[in-house]
Design a protein that fits this description.
The protein is built from 4 helices and 7 strands; from the N terminus they run ββαβαββαββα. By secondary structure, it is of the alpha+beta class. The protein has 2 domains: 84 residues, CBS-domain; 38 residues, no CATH class. The longest helix has 13 residues. The radius of gyration is 26 Å and the shape is elongated. The protein starts with 7 loop residues before the first strand and ends with a helix.
Length: 136
């Protein structure tokens, strides 16, 4: 999603009808974090007697925390939003902005009469539309 520059991906069924949507927020909500401790050894490996000052001075180790974010290996239908807020192609820009604000979402699928997705409308596109209207 990051590489493609999209904030959400619509999920379609076998007939290409919109059945859900998954966003970065949904993915994060379904992750787990694995914590561990790593150790780096910066000793220079002298063979001096272990009780000499040089031996103690040359023995350097650093411990550090490691956190890995893991996504579960399971079907997308377990993480997607099923009650998708969508708009028809003829929806007004102000109606779309209001729906996005009320649902606290950053994107809206645009669907035709058969509930087939025809486009995705993102909040930044609405801002651009409002800015164009203000300049006219």
């Amino acid at each position: 999603m990051e590489i493609s520059g999209v904030d959400a991906i619509p999920i379609l069924d076998e007939e290409n009808k919109l059945t859900g949507i998954i966003s970065e927020r949904d993915l994060i909500r379904n992750t787990s974090i694995e914590d561990s401790v790593g150790v780096s050894d910066f000793s220079n490996g002298t063979d001096d007697d272990e009780w000499t000052w040089e031996s103690i001075r040359d023995n350097h180790t650093i411990s550090f925390g490691i956190s890995k974010v893991k996504l579960p290996n399971r079907p997308v239908k377990t993480a997607m939003v099923k009650n998708v807020v969508a708009v028809p192609q003829n929806a007004e820009v102000s109606e779309c902005a209001l729906k996005m604000r009320r649902a606290r979402i950053d994107q809206l699928p645009v669907v035709n009469g058969d509930k087939r997705i025809v486009a995705m409308l993102y909040d930044r596109e609405l801002v651009k539309a409002f800015c164009r209207n203000d300049q006219e």
